[in-house]
Amino acid sequence: MRLDTRIDGLTADWRDYRLSLAQSILETTGASGVLEIDTIEQAGRRASRPLGPTIGVPPGLETTGRTLRGVASWYGPGFHGRRASSGAIFDERDFTIAHKTLPHETLLLVTYGDKQAVVMVNDRGPFIEGRDFDLSRATAEYLGLGLGTITAEILVEAP
Prior knowledge:
There is one protein chain. The protein is an alpha+beta fold. The chain has a single domain (3-157), classed as Beta Barrel (Barwin-like endoglucanases). 30% of the residues lie in helices and 32% in strands. The chain is built from three helices and seven strands, in the order ααββββββαβ.
């Protein structure tokens, strides 16, 4: 089987898994009404993007040339299953990030040491002086970060 065919299959499987996970979180937390519909739409957008571990900019995305550098910490316990400021249900197992000013759904290529991950802004924070980013637990664990300085390159979907 060709490599690109296998990658397409894995991408579809990953998207389906993320959508089912988002639905499970919504059911567990009892979300309802208009916000639930918005959250399902957001989950669909997240699932269609190449979030997670990567080496360089993944296919389908391109860099804007804008890079931020700052101190990052992580959060998760106590927030898992609650609504993020974007309206989405926060899942500490997702590759997301909080930032004080970047628009929700901004995609970032985060680098720490020799590891990289694509994450999406879904929340505001951190609210501890001297910190610029809050990573989800999954992102922090993958990068091997407790508290440290990261580089975050702003990405956009390729035309």
